[in-house]
């Protein structure tokens, strides 16, 4: 309005030109769209750029880690196959402050692949027994690495990060199996799994089994080698070194240094006929190669588990002990536990609960037998008398094992299939010849010996011996014995002398001949007397003849012969000889009778055969008798002292008890030594 | 009455029936369409040019937003292993302050934030008040403001120059390299559009709002 001049001043020189007004307004109206295209274009471009930026920002994912060591928001990269595909935007805590949420912006083209099976971990330099890895991250800082497969799935935005990098590299072909063992000995994260000494896999993710009491580890066997796995493959622990002392001598087995440091396992397929394994197949890790080769338990996870309840001590029974059936190892003890049970009368008592893992195939059942079928079989066996019991095993009998035995006279029982946690197999008291118990039994027997009675009888005996030894009669024995023996000796000497003389003179033979001749002569005389008449006749005739013959000469000769005979018979020797002989024979027969009456006929006959030797011995013995009696006296004195000591009950008892205790302790120590030696023979070598 | 004096209203070319050349400043009668001295087209001052001012200003402002949101510099150290850092203008200022370079931070802050925003405000205000009634003193202030805006506008390009020089110099291959970010282009465009905006503002419009009589002020 100010522009518009008032009419009365229209002629003033300062009056603006009117016509310029309207074109200006029109121009304003006309120029509006043209110039405003510029900011519109600018807006469009900016919006486009902004939209492009937002659209290509990628997807936000958040990964939960235990900690965020080395992660810097805005700098730390997310890498996939070593290519940066994202970046950490922010780091914050989870609601419960237990974990760190790392929010990452991932490139848009890769986001669809990050699905349920994606894995994330933080890459840091690592120093392990197998070497140093990812040293580059010292320079560049840690980064988050992810791996996912090439199959797009439903995308996910929240992930749980791994605590440590997975051992298998990206997308490696192979088979995942599970190793199960009693203890984690020889198992560490990343420990190598070898085949004939070559590492072909690694173990990871050590954990306790949720089903039973074993330790599990995931093992990845890389691609060409996993074909060597079958269901009959066995794994064993190769960690450390082993020393074994056997019939072949001392054997020291040391594996690679890495194995010594971080453990490891080796596998071999020892028997044919196994089926190819699937992912997740469970193998049992055997403690050593020898066990693995002897114990072909292919699959303990599918083993039939039974419980046996024992009311007695199972000292020496350990997990891993064998379960034997008809001498074959069909399973092993996997757990020992005690529990309070109530018996039929309502009394509470503690009983041992032993868990057995039995491989049905080892019982002779087909390989594909299910647990139910195996239980059916066992039920039948139990009905016909199959029982479980604890039995001794091992060198000293110190370790125990479980036996499944058929007892025909067993009390009827059933397999309790409803038992918890596993079916209960009825058991009978075991046959345990425990070494320590044996030693104890021995000591008990020693303790039960009638020592007091024995000592009493010994005392009595000693007393009587003393009495005998000290009596006058006994003392006289040696003298009388000596006299008797001297007489006997003298008699024997005489007999010998006579015999010798007789033998020397040959008198006996001549005498006998002479007697015979005399008898013949007498007979002849008698015959002649019978023929006297004839003879008289003949004599007459002869006398006639004799009258004719020189009677004087014949008479002289006959007289001479008769004189000689009379002289011979008239000698004293001849007179005495028959008497002597008869006496000798008489005494010999008496002696024989005596000896026969004494109950040592046999031996003494022999003794008599060497009567002189015997006599000599008897004489020697008789000489020693005084010493014997002296010794007996000393013994009696000592026995007296013993008895006196025994009289002092307290000290003797203490000594005895101490002795017993020492012996028991020694026995125990021996038992434990035996057990120790059996358990780890290397203690022998190492000395502990 | 009609004799101009200190008390008298300022005689503008427009009121004198003349039109001034925007290039060389010579005034010509309103009937003339070209400046006979410098040859440029003579445009009478009118509010139509304010549309252009607003339009350029809007375009400049539109580009100023991404210039601040997008990274200005992309720095990659050790081939990207050590990390790629992207710095926006404000982030760069904060980082400079973090390292203690307060002077440099102040310069960057002034040149990249204070000056452009001041320019937006100044031009907007000038365009708003153009042609509105004003005293002589106010008109002089506006003119001075306009001159300052026009003078200082080119210095806003200092950021763009820094980015250009850095990305030309720091190309050390693997160790470190700097690339201009999308904000550099946006910022350059923003500065350019605000300069155009300032140029399309016709300072003669400042004087259009002057009172016709000085007496009016006194009455």
Q: How would you summarize the topology of this molecule?
A:
The complex is a heterodimer of chains A (688) and B (219).
Chain A: H1 21-55, E1 59-65, E2 77-80, E3 83-93, E4 100-106, E5 119-123, E6 126-128, E7 131-133, H2 136-140, E8 143-147, E9 158-160, E10 174-181, E11 192-195, E12 198-208, E13 215-222, H3 223-226, E14 233-237, E15 241-246, E16 249-254, H4 257-262, E17 265-269, E18 281-286, H5 289-294, E19 304-310, E20 322-325, E21 328-342, E22 348-358, H6 371-383, E23 386-393, E24 399-406, E25 424-425, H7 435-448, H8 451-470, H9 472-505, H10 507-530, H11 532-548, H12 551-570, H13 572-597, H14 601-609, H15 611-647, H16 649-679, H17 682-686
Parallel strand pairs in A: 1-9, 2-8, 10-18, 11-17, 14-18, 19-25, 20-24
Antiparallel strand pairs in A: 1-4, 2-3, 3-4, 5-8, 6-7, 10-13, 11-12, 12-13, 14-17, 15-16, 19-22, 20-21, 21-22, 23-24
Helix pairs in contact in A: 7-16, 8-15, 9-15, 14-15
Chain B: E1 18-20, E2 27-29, H1 48-69, E3 73-77, E4 83-87, H2 89-98, H3 102-129, H4 136-153, H5 158-169, E5 176-180, H6 182-200, H7 214-218
Antiparallel strand pairs in B: 1-2, 3-4, 3-5
Helix pairs in contact in B: 1-3, 1-6, 2-3, 3-4, 3-6, 4-6
């Amino acid at each position: 309005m100010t522009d518009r001049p008032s009419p009365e001043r229209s002629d003033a020189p300062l009056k603006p030109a009117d016509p310029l007004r309207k074109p200006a307004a029109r121009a304003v109206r006309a120029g509006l769209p043209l110039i405003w295209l510029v900011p519109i274009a600018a807006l469009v471009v900016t919006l486009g750029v902004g939209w492009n930026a937002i659209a290509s920002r990628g997807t936000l994912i958040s990964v939960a880690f235990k900690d965020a060591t080395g992660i810097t928001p805005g700098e730390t990269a997310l890498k996939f196959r070593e290519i940066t595909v994202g970046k950490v935007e922010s780091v914050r805590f989870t609601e419960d402050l237990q974990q760190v949420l790392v929010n990452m912006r991932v490139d848009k083209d890769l986001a669809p692949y990050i699905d349920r099976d994606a894995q994330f971990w933080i890459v840091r330099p690592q120093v392990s027994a197998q070497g140093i890895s990812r040293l580059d991250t010292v320079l560049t800082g840690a980064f988050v690495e992810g791996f996912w497969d090439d199959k797009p799935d439903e995308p996910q935005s929240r992930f749980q990060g791994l605590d440590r990098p997975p051992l298998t590299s990206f997308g490696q072909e192979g088979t995942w199996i599970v190793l199960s063992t009693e203890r984690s000995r020889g198992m560490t994260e990343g420990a190598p799994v070898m085949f004939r000494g070559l590492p072909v896999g690694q173990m990871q993710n050590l954990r306790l089994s949720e089903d039973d009491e074993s330790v599990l580890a995931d093992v990845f066997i890389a691609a060409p080698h996993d074909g060597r796995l079958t269901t009959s493959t066995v794994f064993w622990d190769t960690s450390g070194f082993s020393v074994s002392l056997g019939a072949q001598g001392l054997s020291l087995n040391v594996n690679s240094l890495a194995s010594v440091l971080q453990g490891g396992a080796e596998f071999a397929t020892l028997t044919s006929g196994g089926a190819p394994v699937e992912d997740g197949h469970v193998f049992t890790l055997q403690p050593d190669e020898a066990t693995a080769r002897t114990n072909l338990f292919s699959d303990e996870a599918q083993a039939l588990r039974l419980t046996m309840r024992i009311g007695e001590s199972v000292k020496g029974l350990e997990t891993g002990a064998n379960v034997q059936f008809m001498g074959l190892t069909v399973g092993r003890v996997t757990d020992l536990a005690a529990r309070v049970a109530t018996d039929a009368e309502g009394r509470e008592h503690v009983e041992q609960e032993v868990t057995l893992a039995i491989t049905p195939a080892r019982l002779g059942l087909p390989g594909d037998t299910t647990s139910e079928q195996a239980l059916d079989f066992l039920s039948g066996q139990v009905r016909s008398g199959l029982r479980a019991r604890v039995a001794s095993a091992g060198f000293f009998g110190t370790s125990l094992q479980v036996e499944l035995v058929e007892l025909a006279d067993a009390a009827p029982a059933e397999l309790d299939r409803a038992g918890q946690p596993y079916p209960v197999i009825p058991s009978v008291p075991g046959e345990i010849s425990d070494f320590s118990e044996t030693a104890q039994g021995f000591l008990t027997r020693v303790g039960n010996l009638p020592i007091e009675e024995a000592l009493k009888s010994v005392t009595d005996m000693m007393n009587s011996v003393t009495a005998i030894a000290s009596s006058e009669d006994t003392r006289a024995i040696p003298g009388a014995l000596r006299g008797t023996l001297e007489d006997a000796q003298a008699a024997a000497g005489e007999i010998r002398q006579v015999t010798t003389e007789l033998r020397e003179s040959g008198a006996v033979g001549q005498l006998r001949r002479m007697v015979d001749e005399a008898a013949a002569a007498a007979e002849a005389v008698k015959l002649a007397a019978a023929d006297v008449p004839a003879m008289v006749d003949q004599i007459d005739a002869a006398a006639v003849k004799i009258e004719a013959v020189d009677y004087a000469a014949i008479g002289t000769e006959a007289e001479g012969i008769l004189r000689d005979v009379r002289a011979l018979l008239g000698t004293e020797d001849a007179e005495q000889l028959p008497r002597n002989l008869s006496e000798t024979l008489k005494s010999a027969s008496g002696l024989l009778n005596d000896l026969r009456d004494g109950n040592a006929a046999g031996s003494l006959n022999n003794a008599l055969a060497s009567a002189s030797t015997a006599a000599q011995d008897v004489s020697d013995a008789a000489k020693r008798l005084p010493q014997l009696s002296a010794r007996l006296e000393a013994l009696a004195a000592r026995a007296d002292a013993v008895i006196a000591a025994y009289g002092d009950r307290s000290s003797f008892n203490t000594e005895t008890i101490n002795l017993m205790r020492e012996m028991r302790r020694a026995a125990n120590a021996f038992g434990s030594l035996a057990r120790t030696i059996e358990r780890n023979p290397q203690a022998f070598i190492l000395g502990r | 009455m009609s004799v101009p004096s200190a008390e008298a209203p300022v005689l503008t070319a427009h009121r004198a029936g003349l039109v001034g050349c925007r290039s060389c400043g010579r005034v010509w009668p309103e009937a003339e369409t070209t400046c006979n001295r410098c040859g440029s087209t003579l445009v009478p001052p009118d509010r139509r040019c304010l549309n252009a001012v607003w339009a350029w200003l809007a375009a400049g402002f539109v580009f100023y937003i991404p210039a601040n949101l997008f990274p200005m510099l992309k720095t990659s150290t050790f081939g990207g292993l050590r990390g790629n850092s992207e710095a926006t203008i404000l982030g760069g200022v904060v980082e400079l302050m973090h390292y203690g370079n307060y002077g440099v931070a102040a310069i960057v802050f002034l040149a990249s934030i204070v000056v452009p925003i001041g320019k937006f405000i100044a031009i907007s205000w000038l365009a708003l008040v153009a042609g509105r009634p004003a005293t002589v003193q106010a008109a002089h202030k506006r003119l001075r403001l306009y001159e300052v805006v026009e003078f200082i506008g080119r210095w806003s390009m200092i950021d763009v120059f820094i980015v250009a020089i850095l990305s030309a110099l720091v190309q050390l291959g693997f160790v470190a390299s700097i690339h201009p970010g999308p904000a550099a282009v946006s910022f350059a465009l923003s500065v350019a559009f605000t300069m155009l905006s300032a140029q399309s503002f016709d300072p003669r419009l400042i004087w259009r709002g002057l009172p016709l009589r000085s007496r009016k002020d006194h009455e």
